[in-house]
Every structure is written in C-alpha cells, then in structure tokens.
Amino acid sequence: MTVIVGIPACERTRNELLWHETPARYAAAVFGGAGALPLMIPPMGEAQVAVLERLDGLLLPGSPSNVHPRHYAGGESLTPEHHDHQRDATVLPLIRAAIARGVPVLAICRGIQELNVALGGTLHQVVHALDGRHDHRGGAGTLEEKYGPKHKVMLSGRLARLVGASEIVVNSLHGQAIDRPAPGMVVEARAEDGTIEAVRVETAPGFALGVQWHPEWGYADNPASLALFAAFGEACRRFRSGMKEAA
Q1: CA nearest 130: which of 96, 94, 179?
Q2: Confidence (pTM)
Q3: CA–CA separation, 238 vs 234, rounded Å?
Q4: Which positions are catalytic?
Q5: Residue range 111-151, pLDDT digits in tens
C-alpha cells in the first residue's frame, strides 16, 4: 500500500528570488524510515489545507525560522530576523485541520513548536536566556558535530513504549521551545534542565506526536529514530485503510 506524507516547505529569498524548500533529509526519512512517498507542500497560505484530501500523513520539519510570537500572544519578537510568515500562514491552519481529521502528524524541531502554537500553547523565545536552562543550540563545527548526540532526554508515556526506553541521548539544534503546552497536550519527554522535548496530542483522533530533536538526521543508524518513523508510517497506512488510532 502506497501512502503519501506531506512536508510543508519554507519560503526563502535568495538572489532576489523566492524559493520554497526544505532539507532533503526529511523526505529521505519519510521514504526510508516511514515507508511513504514524500510530497512537498509549498507555503501558499490557508488554501493549502485542501491538500489534506490527498495525504495520509503530515510531517512538520525543522527550520532556521521561528513561529512569530503574534500567533501565541508572545509579545515583541526577540528574533525578528528569523521569521517565515508564509510558513506560519500555511502550517498553523494545516495542523489544526489535520488533527481534526485524524491525519497522522509527526512534528520535528520547529514543527513541535508549530504544533503547540496551532493548538493554543505558547513558546519560550530564547531558551538559553532562562535561569537554569542549557544552551540547546547546535554550536560550531561540522554538520556531523552540530547534529551529533548532545544530551539525555527522559521519556514517558506512549513515546517511551514506542521507543522501548525511558532515556535516550539526542541531538539539539534549537533556540526556542515549548513554554505552556496546549490544552489536550501531554508532555512525554524532558531534557535534564526541564526543557520540554516531546509532546503527544492526547485529544487527537489519530497519531499526533512532536519531538524537539532531529530524529531524521542519521535515522537509519538510530534505533529510537527508526522506531519513531516506523510507528508514524504504520499510522499513515492505518489512516489510509480507514483505521484511525491514537498515537
């Protein structure tokens, strides 16, 4: 059975031209880890909700950009140079519609932040400026060093059962994170400094899970990442077959 997973793209300006793009590793993980065909969704606004009629799953990828705080009454932006208004305008309504329909959702990095904001939660705009919090950004070095293992996270609930562990080591490349979880959202992983690292939408009729780290990076060599993408792919196949289940 062939299933199709949509991946929303970012809008970038390069050489005075607009580009719609997202790193290829997300499509590679959907194809190789979830066993699904990836389909990029251009950031064209709320009209893109209609694409859900053709999708069996939605993967929300990471990005250098941040959700604008006006979408969660967060006050003035502390990262004004790092916003993508077209992605906000596309993905936030797309998430709400997908959750309502039971379309399986897997959210990664910026994706988990979008998931929380779309459903009524808030964000910390600069995590490393908070008392007692670590710097969760990637730091300097090669890509392998930036995306290498950084810190432990403690897992709970269904995510722990899915992965088969209560503690794993993950990479870390984010400056923002969840502050107040949205209504109906359950925290299923935290870093040692208390930063929320994974959530599940308990009120969703289908699979709806978000992680703050990047499981798509080197997924094929990471048992926890393989388990996560396999579970997402299975949820997409069940959705296509008409059997919607909770994450």
Answers
A1: 179
A2: 0.96
A3: 6
A4: 109, 214, 216
A5: 999 999 999 999 999 999 999 999 899 888 999 999 999 99
